[in-house]
Amino acid sequence: MDEQQYYKKVYSKFWVGQTHIYGYGKYEQSIVRQILKVSPQRVFEVGIGTGWPIGASLKRKGIHVDGCDIADSLVVLARKELDNESGIYVGDIMEYKGKSVYDVTYCVRSSWYIPNFYATVEKMLSMTKPGGFVVFDIMDQNSLYCLKLRCLEMKEQYYRFLGLNVDERFGKHFVSVGKMKKFLKNHGLAYRCIKEKKIVKSKNAFNTPKVVFVCKKEWK
Predict the structure, then answer these.
(1) Residue 139 CB neighbour total at 10 angstroms
(2) pTM of the model
(3) Angle made by CA atoms 106, 80, 122, in degrees to the nearest 5
(4) Is the pLDDT of residue 26 over 60?
(5) What is the pLDDT of residues 90-128, one digit of tens each?
(6) Are 214 and 192 contacting, i.e. CB atoms less than 8 angstroms apart?
């Protein structure tokens, strides 16, 4: 089963419950605040899931929310949650063929399921108005959390070598913070980044690997 098949058949079911487990906490509230600072009218979410909680929070502020997700079952829920049948589609961001441009494009809690996230950021930029913002988070590949997962993967590979059954996991794609900063600089973007640990005020470095990037698309 490849990653897209896994996402559609397995992870989409997991996600419906997971969004309510982590809820609308400090991390999600911080993302919403960053988006609202721009006073947007139209936004686009990559990996929109069920549309809750971020899309739903923005909609309550009178913002129009479009988006995409590769899991059709989640898109059905997102369309209902956000009362948007035509602007939310099944597929990835690279398939977007609309002519709309947005005040903000964002991708939250999804980048590590996208193999080439740099291409995704470029596509988001192409859909963002000059003076608008691109907001996304990544998992820092140099974090203790990612080191823990690498060690776990080595252990599972050893078990497979011995012929023991191992539950298959959905692969995650981690990104170097330094490389992302260089990528954004090369694209002429003004940006700032905020560590998850600072947002949630946690002392647990093993479980706060995320870094949020807020990037402004300059006028040309």
Answers:
(1) 21
(2) 0.86
(3) 20
(4) yes
(5) 999 999 999 899 999 999 999 998 989 999 999 999 999
(6) yes
Q: How far is CA 148 from the centre of its chain?
A: 21
Kindly give the pairing relationship between strand 64-69 and strand 88-90: parallel
Q: Which residues pair with residue 128 across a beta bridge?
A: 102
Q: What is the bridge-based pairing of β-strands 42-46 and 102-107?
A: parallel
SS3 1: coil
Backbone region of residue 166 per phi and psi (left: phi > 0; alpha: psi in -120 to 50; beta: other values): beta
**Is 144:214 a contact under the CB 8 Å cutoff?**
no
What does the alpha-carbon distance between residue 34 and residue 38 come to, in Å, rounded to a whole number? 8
Q: C-alpha dihedral over 145, 199, 180, 123, to 10 degrees?
A: 110
Q: Prior bond to 115 cis, omega within 30? A: no
Q: Which residues have C-beta within 8 Å of that of residue 101, sequence separation ≥ 6? A: 127, 128, 129, 132
Distance CA 3, CA 38 (A): 34
Q: Is 197 exposed, middle or buried (0-12, 13-18, 19+ CB in 10 A)?
A: middle
Structure tokens at 17: 């419950």
